[in-house]
Amino acid sequence: MITVLTILVGLAMLATLGVLLAGVLGMSGGKDGSRRSNLLMRWRIGLQFLALALFVILLSLTRH
User: Fold this and answer.
1) Of 12, 16, 18, 60, which has the fewest beta carbons less than 10 angstroms from its beta carbon?
2) What is the domain extent for residue 25?
3) Distance between CA atoms of 63 and 30, rounded to whole angstroms?
């Protein structure tokens, strides 16, 4: 179970990084990306929350 949670935390962190990079690249693209940038920011916040929640669960399971 701990191994699965560790992998899920890593995947959530990588997904957050990917959405963050897509948002930064989209913002540098020009004027038409404001709606897309806002959507990506919402996704990034959700993925950050997921990563932190999984990390807290992982920490609570590994502490004795």
Assistant:
1) 60
2) 2-62
3) 48
